[in-house]
Amino acid sequence: MTAASLREGRDNTQTRPSRPIRSRAKLKRTLVVWAMITPALLGLAIFFVYPLLANLYYSFTSFNLLSPPEWIGLRNYQYLFTQDPRVVTAALNTLWLVVILVPVRIIMAMAVAGLLVRAKRASGLWRTLFYMPALVPPVASVVAFVFLFNPGTGPVNQILHAVGIPGPLWFSDPALAKPSLVLMGVWVMGDIMIIFLASLLDVPRDQYEAAALDGANGPQRVRYVTLPHMGPVLLFAIITGVIAALQYFTEAAVASSVASGKTGVSVQLSQVLGYPSDSLLTYTEWLYVRGFSNFQLGYAAALAVLLFVITAAFLFVLLRRFKAFTPEGRS
Amino acid sequence: MSATATRPSTLDTERNRRSGRRKPNSVLLWIAEHTVLVVLAVLFVAPIVFVLLTSFMSANQTLTASLWPNPWDFGNYVRAFTQVPLAQWFGNSAVYAVLATAFMLISSVPAAYVLAKIRIRFANTIFLAIIVAMLLPPQVTIVPLYVMWSQLGLTGTLWPLILPNLLGDAFSIFLLRQFFLTIPSEYADAARIDGNGELGVLVRVIVPMAKPGIAAASIFLFFNAWNDYFGPLVYTSENPDNWPVAYGLAMFHGSHGTDWGTTMAVTMLVTIPVVIIFFFAQRTFVEGITLTGVKG
Q1: Preferred mutation among B125, B143, B181 to probe A, highest tally of A CBs within 10 A
Q2: Beta-ladder partners of A61
Q3: Which of A51, A208, A274, B20 lies in disulfide reach of A278, CB 3.0 to 4.6 Å?
Q4: What is the ipTM of this complex?
């Protein structure tokens, strides 16, 4: 910094005649640079900073879009924490997904990556095969899974029937609806699996050899060589997985509406969300119902503030631990 | 560094592996691993196979126990277009995804270039804001944004989902910046000495060198727009004329009873464009990775 300004000072004295031209060129460069980044800055201001602040304000109001927001202090929060009949169910469903769906997906992705890293022949074919489901649009994979697992004619229950097992109701059984979505979550684990595979291929071979020479058996080599190397990637997968689970919406909403058999233009989504018996009602779905079906936008804003606080805690850990997310990070 | 460290031991590894093959223990392990792989592969492919087979069944046949089309009925792919405005929905999706991607490129490529290659004030703050904006759930800001778009009279259309891309997309800026960082600054410096302004450096040097990264960012945004459900639900659910096809698929089934055959045909139709684009782009991804020498 000081060196740069010193050099600049010397330049100025040495090339005095050309100084106006130089500074005009410099000004032009500065203007071009700011013109290049200004749209993005405006975008951050309009679509990120402003909505966060406005949302905080709306959360202290009663607002239905028809009349202006009316200040009601902490009443929304009071209702949220003490009276809302379904928010606890919704929050617990989302918590269930965080605690079950995220680890199951990560363990399965790790297991498949571990198998693929050892498959030497046709490795490209195997990788494509296990990655493919992750490409399927989420709505399409949910519709497909509700069909596969539909109790009457679905292939899964047909096959179970053929081997003499009575098929369960899957997406129509309150106890099995979330586990059915976990099965689908495992099917589309390719996105995490690819990251794990890249990291596994990166483990230096000689570390395994050194461990083997020291007498480490298979599980020990995984414990003391593979896992430490995978640490950062694993933490990244856990935190982004948790953030994704906190906003879980599409899969649950589509599963409820297709499995309930009540879809179409005339059906209000809010009537089917949570089917069967609120077992698929997630926190963000409840936010949607209150805000965009009941048009209680002030209360939906309060639900959004709570979601922001919880997500921010996980974001904080992510930002503290990862170089790529700091301005100095180069990878 | 790890490359130089592993090189001396390569021979040992080869020898170990070859001698390892002979041990009955590792033969058993090889068989066990590949059995698990094959079984898993069958389970992972099965859903696609059943969806495809069912899309060739008549409505009556989908209600029977048989899992194989008999006779094969290709009519579902035609009927789907007459039962709902499927062509229009595909058109809406195409407009949404193409415009969003084009707008993102116009705004995000220059912004990512500035963040990667030029020292500006508040760069750290801007970058932090981009990271948080990209990772925050969309539901956190949906209430004020909906209010804003309804005041502009644009709810009921897809514009609230397309227009913001003109002012940069956080994830795309992040991805592009990471890619631009891998291009050595010497190229940009050389172009500056040749008399290029920053715009010239970006257009003549950085963009040609970062084509795979730009392609990757475009494809990610295109897929996100094509797959989007929450956005169209909030803004267009009352206006079926403006539905994108992924949202239309979610609404498709119930309006015509349990016609799984047609539903599976639409499911295939929604998925096929994504798969085609992926297979064309796969080479671009690989090229991008090998060209720049970055991994992961």
Answers
A1: B143
A2: A71
A3: A274
A4: 0.87
| CB pairs < 8 Å spanning A and B | 289
Backbone angles phi, psi at A264, to 5 degrees: 120, 170
Contact B267 A300 (CB under 8 A): no
CA distance B215 to chain A (A): 17
pLDDT of residue A19: 58
Query: What is the helix (H) or strand (E) element at residue A62, kind and residue range?
Result: strand A61-62
- Note the pLDDT of residue B284: 65
Domains and CATH numbers, chain A: 85-325 (1.10.3720.10)
Residue A175 to chain B, least CA–CA distance (Å): 23
| B222 vs B44: CA distance, rounded Å | 25
Whether residue A290 has pLDDT greater than 70: yes
For residue A259, count CB atoms less than 10 angstroms from its CB and return exposed for 0-12, middle for 13-18, buried for 19 or more. buried
* pLDDT at residue B102, as a whole number: 97
* Cα dihedral value A98, A101, A106, A112, nearest 10: 180
A34's CB contacts (< 8 A; 6+ apart) are B120
Rg (CA), chain B: 25
A331/B199 touch (CB, cutoff 8 Å), yes or no? no
CA distance linking residue B14 with residue B8, whole number of Å: 11
pLDDT tens track for B73-107 = 888 899 889 888 999 999 999 999 999 999 999 99
Interface test with B, best of A26, A34, A48, A258 (most B CBs within 10 A): A48
Tell me the nearest-neighbour CA distance from B295 into chain A, angstroms. Answer: 8
B96 inside 8 A of chain A by CB = no
**DSSP state string for A67-120:** S--EE-TTHHHHHHHHT-TTHHHHHHHHHHIIIIIHHHHHHHHHHHHHHHHH--
What confidence category does residue A324 fall into, taking pLDDT thresholds of 50, 70 and 90?
Answer: low
Q: Which residue of B has its CA nearest to A296?
A: B143
Is residue B146 within 8 angstroms of chain A, CB to CB?
yes
In our burial notation (b when 16+ CB lie closer than 10 A, e otherwise), range A40-59 reads bbebbeebbeebbebbeebb
Mean pLDDT computed over every residue of chain A: 87
Q: What distance in Å separates the CA atoms of residue A9 and residue A274, rounded to the nearest whole number? A: 68
Tokens of B242: 């403006």
Q: Between residues 283 and 312 of chain A, which touch chain B (CB distance below 8 Å)?
A: 284, 287-288, 291-292, 297, 300-301, 304, 307-308, 311
Residue A5 pLDDT exceeds 60: no
Q: Do B136 and A158 touch (CB under 8 A)?
A: no
Q: Can you give the C-alpha Rg of chain A in angstroms?
A: 27
Q: What is the pLDDT of residues B4-54, one digit of tens each?
A: 333 334 444 444 444 444 566 788 888 888 899 999 999 999 999 999 999
Residues of B in contact with A120 (CB under 8 A): none
∠ Cα A29 A34 A39 (to 5°): 145
Boundaries of every domain in chain B: 2-77, 85-292
Interface test with A, best of B83, B125, B130, B140 (most A CBs within 10 A): B140
